[in-house]
Amino acid sequence: MRIAVYSTKPYDRRFLDAANAQGTHQLAYLEPRLSADTVAAAAGAPAVCIFVNDEASAPVLESLEAQGLRLVALRCAGFNNVDLAAAQRLGITVCRVPEYSPHAVAEHTLALILALNRKTHRAYARVREGNFALEGLLGFDIHGKTVGVVGTGKIGATFLRVISGLGCTLLAHDPHPNPECLAMGVRYVTVAELLAASDIISLHCPLTPATRHLIDGAAVRRLKRGAMLINTSRGAVVDTLALIEGLKTGAIGSLGLDVYEEEADLFFENLSDQVLQDDVFARLLTFPNVLITAHQAFFTTEALATIAQTTLANVSAFEATGKALHEISTERLA
Description:
Layout: E1 2-5, H1 10-19, E2 26-29, E3 47-50, H2 58-66, E4 71-74, H3 84-90, E5 93-95, H4 102-118, H5 120-128, E6 146-150, H6 154-164, E7 169-173, H7 179-183, E8 187-188, H8 191-197, E9 200-203, H9 217-222, E10 227-231, H10 240-249, E11 252-257, H11 279-284, E12 290-292, H12 301-321
Parallel strand pairs: 1-2, 1-3, 3-4, 4-5, 6-7, 6-9, 7-8, 9-10, 10-11, 11-12
Helix pairs in contact: 1-12, 2-3, 4-6
């Protein structure tokens, strides 16, 4: 099957070509993101392969369907950038990679926590400039602290298993408690209780209407003062302006982000020779207790290999049977 692959980077080519070593599919690599302006590049392709910042809105899907598209294959787990109702109306199948490496995201979350706590990113810069002073680098023992996790699917559960090895009290919130987490001794509580009791909070929930801006101004005010907040899920799970206010007042002691609500115009691109136009993001960068990575948590060899293999397996199944292996049903609209 011919697949128009949007938002292509060199690493995407490497792993997709390896997964397609038998030449089963014709992969047409496109550097731009999918949008109303680039939809014509997929003309004649019955399938498109898209990533987290591609736009699969109703108008875009309508244009794709008019060009003969039948399948949208996401090479990621999240699908908030796809208008599922429009896809259903147009008879377009949407599929995704439901899991790739929960260890990749869980380990990156731990890396953010450790770096923020012991300020290793700041220490690295100091030492390179010949500054060996320790003032301003004081951290705390993570052992004995309370860690709260929102979302205990595979990634959240993996992170809880990892952080449990440091001797923490574990709290969680999820509408569907995970038996694996319960067996680890995790105590499920309300969001309000989790925010008030946790020294470190890590977000691992999908972006849905119920979780959009889950961490807003009111939530920030409920935090245990000086708590560390980590988000490696989706940018819009938090209200960035509320986070900035929390940083200014000291309600948030430190902040680690691997995602950002308006990241589509920033992440995955080299903008080092340009002036940032996003004033909110620029404001975040002024805080010494903020550490931001550019949607990097998934970025391991194992994860990329699994993503490529699962993506093409979805396409192969659809081509053979008319049904992808991991379709997103309209039940996910709720």
